[in-house]
Amino acid sequence: MLFNSYQFIFIFLPLVLITYHVLVKLKLNNLSKVFLVVSSLFFYSFMNIKNLIIILISLGFNFTLYKIMKKYHNKYLLILGVIFNVFYLGVFKYTNFLVDNVNLIFHLDIIIKKIIFPLGISFFTFEQICFLVDTYKKKELNYNLIDYSLFITFFPHLVAGPIVSHAEIIPQVENQSNFNMENFIKGLTLFSIGLFKKVMVADYLGGKVNTIFGDLNSVTMPLAWVGALSYTMQIFLDFSAYSEMAMGIGLMFNIELPFNFLSPYKSSNIKEFWNRWHITLGRFLTNYIYIPLGGNRKGFLRTLINMFIVFLISGIWHGAGYTFIIWGVLHGFAIIIHRIWTKLGFKMSKILGCFLTFNFVNIVWIFFRSKDLESSFIMIGKLFDYSTMYNMGSLKLVGGLPYIIILLVVIILVFTLKNSKVILTSFNNYKYIGLLTGALLCVCLLSLDKVSQFIYFNF
Questions:
Q1: Any stretches that span the bilayer, and where are they (predicted)?
Q2: pLDDT, tens digit, for every residue of 83-98?
Q3: Does a structural domain hold residue 141?
Q4: What is the pLDDT of residues 337-357, one digit of tens each?
Q5: Contact predicate 315/347, CB 8 Å
Q6: Mean pLDDT over residues 308-333, rounded?
Q7: 387-415 burial, b for 16+ CB within 10 Å, e for fewer?
């Protein structure tokens, strides 16, 4: 089930919200949590019932191992848990990729049935690895199956994040509170903003991106830049939209989810970009990979190596393909260059830093979007194909000047408007917010003629 669908907005969400708050009001706290777990599992398995089996196996194994680790504090149990989760994720996400490469390298013809990638497995696998690590470090953790299941399956963050820790969710679940009108209005506002960004902007840009990347033979230098910028805007608006909708839904249940995006394209260097982009993933990689590798405690060279490993893993986590690996490697090199630059004491103006950072991110996103490495290099080559610099006729492929104006407006708004954290913390004019929320919802609901998945469902 998708957030941007009529069945979710008009049936699932209202029924779950009303039932949950009635149960909480009646002091049936355990029943309300069980209801929310069952509803979340229904949400997750709505489009494919096989997903239910996959997540239940993961939940069952990890919770059982958690209980054993509570009784027998042994690092080998933790290692077992990490190996299981990585293997479980790898089977579904990387088996086809590995078989294809084995066939290519060894000239074999191994044929296996294509494994369907379950939604959200990357996210709930990371969350459960975090939980096991924290269990090993903090033996005082004491959660029951209901609270643990709700922490993992809570449907707003289940499919595409944000990646949450048990400390952010379980205490809120244990201390349930009655319906809160302020939280509900804030939540509905965030949900409406996210829905608008997804339905009215990201999906529109996505249609143009598909056209450009689907016909590289027709792409000239101007159209290549339009395509790259369109995807750069699309992926930010699409993913931040999901995160805002998830946060908004969480607030409706009086559960606060962490912010995931804080105006990343306004960053003046690559480190700042990663402090603002997919914040919860960065937090996971820092706390559970970078620091255990030694962080910055083992000398400058080792620090650079650790940083590179983190971004390599980030690329591999995002997808089974060389395009994602190259994307991670390039960001790894960029963060190393920034670290060396800073170490040497060099300075750069903020405007120039923003320009260079944005353009680097913009170009490297091409690897993220392209179907294979060959397409990536073709598209990047088109960006610098000066022989077609003045060929504006190809812009007709995306609608010509009207679309260029729309794209420029989107870029300007992304660089000038406040992010969701600023909006939420300055929330005080209910009349204005109510009008804005109503207007956004009306426009979006009238435009839901087709339902499209969020980009990060693929990761």
A1: 6-23, 30-46, 76-95, 348-368, 397-417, 429-448
A2: 999 999 988 888 888 8
A3: yes
A4: 999 999 999 989 999 999 999
A5: no
A6: 93
A7: ebeeeeebbebbeeeebbebbeebbeebe
Range of the domain at 113: 6-179
353 and 234 fall within a common domain = yes
Same domain, 97 and 195: no
Distance CA 165, CA 288 (A): 12
Q: Do 128 and 93 share a structural domain?
A: yes
Q: Residue 213 has which token pair? A: 């990347």
Predicted confidence band at 451 (pLDDT cuts at 50, 70, 90)? low
Instruction: Identify whether residues 446 and 389 lie together within a single domain.
Output: yes
Q: How far is CA 290 from CA 278, 295, 307, 309, 444, in A?
A: 16, 5, 7, 8, 41
CA atoms of 44 and 24, how far apart (whole Å): 23
State the residue for tokens 């979340």: 40
What is the rounded (10 degree) CA torsion for 56, 253, 191, 275? -70
User: Which helix (DSSP H) or strand (DSSP E) does residue 195 occupy?
Assistant: helix 181-196
Are 188 and 252 spatial neighbours (Cβ–Cβ below 8 Å)?
A: yes
Residues 111 and 215 in one domain: no
Closest CA to 390 of 224, 229, 222, 216: 222
Which of 21, 166, 278, 318 does the annotation list as catalytic? 318
Q: Which residues are within 8 A (CB) of 310 and not within 5 positions of it... i.e. 6 or more apart?
A: 285, 286, 289, 290, 293, 332
Which residue has tokens 């016909």? Answer: 215
Integer Cα distance of 165 and 128 in angstroms: 9
pLDDT at 247 (0 to 100): 94
**Structural contact between residues 177 and 422, judged by C-beta atoms closer than 8 angstroms:** no
DSSP secondary structure letters along 319-384: -SSHHHHHHHHHHHHHHHHHHHHHHTT----HHHHHHHHHHHHHHHHHHHHSSSHHHHHHHHHHHT
367 and 261 part of one domain: yes
Catalytic, 21? Answer no
Token reading at 102: 């084995």
What are the C-alpha distances in Å from 372 to residues 101, 233, 319?
13, 21, 12
